[in-house]
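ok so I'm stuck.
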Amino acid sequence: MKRCFLYAYLFLSCVICGCNDYNNEVLLNRLISVQNEGDTCPYNALERYDSLGAIFEHENEYLRSKYALLGVRLQDKAFITHTNDSVINLLYDYFINYGNSCEKQEVCYYMGSVYRDLHDTPRAVKYFLEAIQVAETEANIDSAIYERSYLQLAAIYRKQLNYEEALKMSLKGLEIAESANVNSIRNYSSIANGYYYLNDTIETVRYSRIVIEKILDEGLIIENSDVIASRMHDFAKFGYKAEADYCYALLQHLPEDARPKNYLINLAVYCKNCVSPDSAAAVFHRIQESDKSIAQQYNSTQFLMKYYASVGNYEEATRFALLFSDANRNLLKDMNVEQTLNARNEFQYIRDRDKEAAMMEQIGRTRLIWAVSIIVMILLLMSLLFFHYHRQRRLLKIIMERNNAVDNARGLIQKYEEELEQSHDIIETKEKELATKYSMIETLDVELKNAEDSIKRLMVQNETLTKFALMKKFSAGTEDAAEIIAKYKRAADGKCTLSEDDWSELIAAVDCVYPNFTSEINERLKDIKLHNLRICYLLKIGMTNPQIVNITGNPPQTVWYRVKRIKEALGNNR
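replied:
not stuck anymore, here's the structure
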């Protein structure tokens, strides 16, 4: 029962974990969808983002941090100025410790963006450089953020009047954009701005033309209308009227609400250099009415003051001179405020840097103490190891001496074993030779036995033939016994053939020596035929089967068969 509860608990745990993982993946996908929309339509994405707040409020820390970081990103995309760094500081601490390389890069970049909006230039530069460092040292990074980090640094350096460093940042950003195959229009525009502030007319115009070509090729006129307005300004400023007119035509085709914020001031410069002072004055009047910023009021009142003085309308010239004086005073005041703020930020940065340096010095001292302690411990440990080494070496020497004695004993044993093994080999060799000789003796015994059997048969034959030889004559006109014996020996060897007379002499001789042989044959073999009778007489005088084959000329199988039947009939008694 307990096991069933355990299995049920494990199953429910797996199901819950699986559901949590699935829920996390779904929520992350929704954030990615809002982020993608924010790259093109940030205001619409902000509305969707606000609607997700209640969902992420009770999720885990990672999802809440991802949601908050997306809010900072969308606010930056929508050009909404950041007013404090409390949120981004918390996100920075979290993602630097627990985030992946892409999240670390993103939080560093938006940390720099927040301090850029807070006019804290040193910290902004620091975190943009940190975002670049993450991109250069880790894998799986966001190439677009990598490229925009350089663009942000270029803008900051231009604001600090460090135009050469700004141009370097813009060129580096272009290199990254082209290698990562991301949109490079802003990079080319930043490079054109860099050359413009360095008064390099040729390079400014060249890169401005590249920018316009890329905008037209990609069909991103509305998205880059501010870039087109800036390029119209540069073309007009350097006297490239045809290019300036083309940019003006592109902007004129845009709806009124799609024109960029920098349209009027750049249009005024275009009209001043390429159209007429009257047209420029009309545009500056529009700027006076629509843009109350200090910089625009300063530019418009300065131009209008000079314009009305040139046309002889001194009343208006005086009015705009007074307005210009107020704008100039406000501009100086704003510059002083900004310089004061920058100085305060610089002071804060230096103080934080000094505090960090003091902290690092303290850490260095702590590390030094730890290093000295570790060195002392290492020396003590080395002393112990040295003592232990000498002790082990002394013991090892004793062991080696004993091992040498054992090795010598083993050598003697091995030597005796080898000699014993050689003795065994000699014994085995002798045993093999003896076995060979026994085998030869057995073979000779068999051959001797066969020879004895042959001798016995020959003795029987000779005995019978000798009996024949003792007879003087078998009948009238019969040959000498020695000739008969010689004839039968030749016939047995297959050297001659017996005639009917020779057979008659053989039968007469056997009947003379064995008077009862013929009657015995007739008694046991009824109606015996002549060829079988002759075989009986040949057997009686001791002829073997091969000899009978040679004498009769019959096939061996026939002879063997007939001999077998005769012996069975006679009871093997010849």
